[in-house]
Amino acid sequence: MSLRSHPTLNLKRFFADLNYFPHAGQQLVHRSTARRRVVSCGVRWGKSLCAAMEAIAAAMLADGRSIGWIVAPTYDLADRIYREVELRLMEHMRHRIVSRKESERRIVIRNISGGLSEIRAKSADNPDSLLGEGLDFVIVDEASRLKPRIWQSFLSQRLIDKDGWALLISTPKGKGYFYDLYRMGQGEDRDPDYESWNMPSWSNPLLDRKLIDAERARLPERVFAQEFGAQFIEGSGSVFRGVRECATSTWSKPHPRERYLAGLDLGKTEDFTVLTIVDTQCRLVYCDRFHRQDWAIQTQRIKTALDRYGATVLVDSTGAGEPILEGLKRDGVNAYPYTFTMQSKTALIDNLSLLFEKREILLPRPELWPEGIDELESFQYSVNDNGYARMSAPGGQHDDIVISLALAAWHVRTRIVRVRLTCFPRRRRRFI
Ligand SMILES: Nc1ncnc2c1ncn2[C@@H]1O[C@H](COP(=O)(O)OP(=O)(O)OP(=O)(O)O)[C@@H](O)[C@H]1O
Ligand SMILES: [Mg+2]
């Protein structure tokens, strides 16, 4: 029986007994009677909690035996909703729990009809595990990150036998199958089986506005629009926007009246070493990329280019980079370290991304630098297993040009800050 058409159920009281008080947006989802509900909302909106509560309510109010799955792109993600389900049941309805199988992430409860209801967490990265029994409901978290065939060929099929319902929740990610499902629940001619919602993170009244404003300031505009504004934006996975629009220049020889700044990404065993040099307007004038050479030869090659341009270089000095940096300094190169941590790498990439966004960087035309343009365009955001956004080259591809250019651009930025500081009178400078 559908949750919302249950004759005696006061859903509000039921949730209150679980110490859950849905906000207005979550209430819309809970009240819907559609068999396919698609919730496309911003991060921290309360999607997973809303879905966990749906799972508990459906299991408790089932008539006879029931089975429901919680599915996500990875086991860790599915586990998050499952843990919430387990926790609330243990805290508020412990007497209803019949069995719990930790290794299978499976909990069985005695429902109000006296039958048994089972809830299981499943990972979509192993489609074989999604074969089998008919389901009464399926909840899909981070649905937009699932391969379309997982929904089409595996999950929706499981619902046919028992005429089950589905709740798909996610932040948007471009205009893939999740967008299509979302669209089916919209407009005058919507599919009657579907209902969908699209709400930004700030429609969750419990979310701290300061956090949202801080992320708005930190993230590139379109990333914020997707992740917090819940907008379906095509190509929003790529980190650098407008790369081609910025690629209208040529390589250029050193000019005596110009100053140059460089970034150096040192190749580890498999990677390339990449040296990029920009002028003070952040125009890329030189790039050298080489592979598998003795360090002494590499150092010489780097030094020759830097000497030609009279450039100061920022070097990725993490790990094996440290002795090379020292070697460059001994050889008279004006070199400074940049140590990579999660935060410092993010700051570096964010800075480069902002330069592209503001069109404050100039690159050689694509035919002059195809490998550079390719690498910059394919550098992308992805969500790791813990649900955090990270930035990287797609599987198996290089990111050494990106890192080298980001180092050169960072260098420019910090110099600009320094120039600005020197503009202040001495007395004020102390307070900056
Ligand atoms: N109605 C509510 N009452 C109290 N806390 C809530 C409510 N809804 C959500 N929260 C809390 O807000 C936080 C975010 O909720 P949740 O993890 O469900 O959001 P989400 O949209 O799935 O986030 P993400 O995009 O990070 O996956 C959690 O700490 C959750 O407990
Ligand atoms: Mg979530």
Description of the molecule:
The chain has 432 residues and is α/β, with parallel strands linked by helices. It has two domains: 3-227, Rossmann fold, CATH 3.40.50.300; 244-422, 2-Layer Sandwich (Nucleotidyltransferase, domain 5), CATH 3.30.420. Helices cover 37% and strands 21% of the residues. The protein is built from 14 helices and 17 strands. It has an eight-stranded mixed beta sheet with strand order 3-4-5-2-6-7-1-8, sandwiched between helices. The longest helix has 24 residues, at 400-423. It is elongated and about 85 Å long. The model is unreliable at 383-387 and 414-432 (pLDDT under 50).
Quick take:
This protein is 37% helix and 21% strand. By secondary structure, it is α/β, with parallel strands linked by helices. The chain has two domains: 3-227, P-loop containing nucleotide triphosphate hydrolases (Rossmann fold, 3-Layer(aba) Sandwich); 244-422, Nucleotidyltransferase, domain 5 (2-Layer Sandwich).
In what order do the strands lie side by side in the largest sheet?
3-4-5-2-6-7-1-8
Strand segment tally: 17
Task: Please name the CATH topology of the largest domain.
Answer: Rossmann fold
Radius of gyration: 27 Å
Please give the alpha-carbon distance between the first and last residues: 64 Å
Mean pLDDT: 86
Bound ions, cofactors and other small molecules, one mention each: adenosine-5'-triphosphate, magnesium ion
CATH architecture field of the largest domain: 3-Layer(aba) Sandwich
Which CATH class of the largest domain applies here? Alpha Beta
Shape: elongated
Low-pLDDT runs of 5+ residues are: 383-387, 414-432
Q: Report helical residue fraction.
A: 25-40%
The CATH fourth-level homologous superfamily of the largest domain: P-loop containing nucleotide triphosphate hydrolases
**Into how many domains do the coordinates divide?**
2
β-sheet strand percentage: 15-25%
- Treating each run of at least 4 consecutive H or I residues as one helix, how many helices? 14
Main beta sheet: 8 strands, mixed
Going by helix content, strand content and strand pairing, the class is: alpha/beta
